[in-house]
Amino acid sequence: MKTLVIFESVHSNTEEIARSIGSGIDGDVKVVQVGDVKPADLESLDLLIIGSPTQTGKPLSSIQNFIKNADESVIKGKKVAAFDTRLSTRVVKMLGYAAGKIGDNLKKRGGNLVAPPEAFFVKGLKGPLLDGEVERAAGWAKELAK
Question: Residue 105: which of 56, 59, 42 has the closest Cα?
Fold first, then answer.
């Protein structure tokens, strides 16, 4: 299975989760920061996973722009999944989360969500990740790949 994990990260927490997701999937897996995605990375994908930190209730603009501007063939009809890193506070709950918005945008572009958008939690604005989140990300990835 050819899988591409695309992420954006500010304080390296989302990158750490993305790399853990990549390690949890067998086969041809590439983990790439959104600004480094090459056209060849997007060819013949079986599974596309996209993640971002949650900031002001949404994904970073680089992730939003990637989904919005991606060639139709990259997403339409493909298996897709979304994740984010976030705080678990009431303020964040009121504003919303990146993963749900990523998932909604992937569906609007014709992607087939293989699982509900997933959240991975950080201890503070800059992290670190809560204990066990890296391992949970690898386990979530194994479930996606089934």
Answer: 59
Q: What's this model's pTM, rounded to 2 decimal places?
A: 0.96
Tell me: the pLDDT tens digits for 9-59? 999 999 999 999 999 999 999 999 999 999 999 999 999 999 999 998 899
End-to-end CA distance of the chain: 10
Q: Tokens at residue 14, please?
A: 């989302």
C-alpha 36/C-alpha 83 separation (Å) is: 19
Which CATH number is correct for 2-145, 3.40.50.360, 2.60.120.10, 3.40.50.2000, 3.90.800.10? Answer: 3.40.50.360
